[in-house]
Amino acid sequence: MKKEIRVPFLIVNPKAYIYGEEALELARICEELTVKYDLDIIYTAQHVDLRMIWEAAPHVILTAQHMDGLVPGRGMGHILPEGIREAGAQAVVLNHAEHPLTVGQLAKALIRAEELELMTIVCANTPEEAASVAKLGPDIMICEPTSLIGTGKTSGDEYILATNRAVKAVNPDIKVIQAAGVSTGEDVYRVVMEGADGSGGTSGILNAPSRREKIVDMLEALKRAQRDRTK
What is the pLDDT of residues 139-155, one digit of tens each? Predict the structure, then answer.
């Protein structure tokens, strides 16, 4: 059965900055905190680390950072969907700015993910691209201007509102992550209060003096936004 995610949620996306024991240590922090705060955490990992992290952190939403739309057989060097599923992945990120896909490649990968009941998290750059990708039916979308990735500068209000609106107009059930440049709890609170379903980051977490304290800061912000959005 495909994993369902609760709103609001956090994504911790180490990309290729850490791996092995360091990635496992961060996953264990996320495991502890997702249970403590009763909030879902998406944790992306290198493919070779998936099984190790799955065994150590069963409560995080373990996510592969890419897969290809192929079936078992020919495909030397590509990422087989069945392989990541068997390794414990519950979700997959597709079309990140650092690993863009053609429309055809993305469509094939989404079909394979649906067949294997993998949650799909698809990236989009502009409001126009967000609307087009939403028509392909992903479960979650990451909307972030490519130019802001890793800069520490968050998306402006106009961009956040426009991309949220573009996705929800196509399908209100698609969850939206706004995470470009997010590095503090206040950043998380702002984007969620402006309509995002989730937030999180990479450098803001990895470069923090204490990664645990940074994630706590972001989860506390999610809790605050959760309370304030129901008022």
Answer: 999 999 877 666 666 77
